[in-house]
Amino acid sequence: MIWEPKQVHAAGDTYTLLEPIPGSPSSVNTGADQKTYLTTVYNTALTLTIALSVIMLVIGGIQYTLSYIPSSKAEGQQKIWAAIGGLLLALFSVLILKTINPKLLEVVLPT
Description:
This protein is mainly α and 111 residues long. The chain has helices at residues 26-30, 34-66, 70-91, 93-100; strands spanning 14-15, 32-33. A two-stranded antiparallel ribbon has the order 1-2. Helix 2 (34-66) runs antiparallel to helix 3 (70-91). The two termini are 24 Å apart. The model has no long low-confidence stretch (mean pLDDT 79).
């Protein structure tokens, strides 16, 4: 093979962040195992996804309310439905993963 992936492990399997993750446990910011770090990253990404979906919902609502042109109203309504779909997908992602395979939610790192 020309290119062969290699597994790289940090010394002691801990990593100290250069900048702390807001709202995360102090153990993640000062040097945590990879499982805790990945769980915190997933929770932070899920929170950001939900926040962005709510912001797009508000923007679509404002666009729908303030426009007089039917095509612009339809565009605002489309943004609202897209934001609701994204919000539901983000909220049900754990349920979807658990339905597919419960082991997908377990963080198992190679040793």
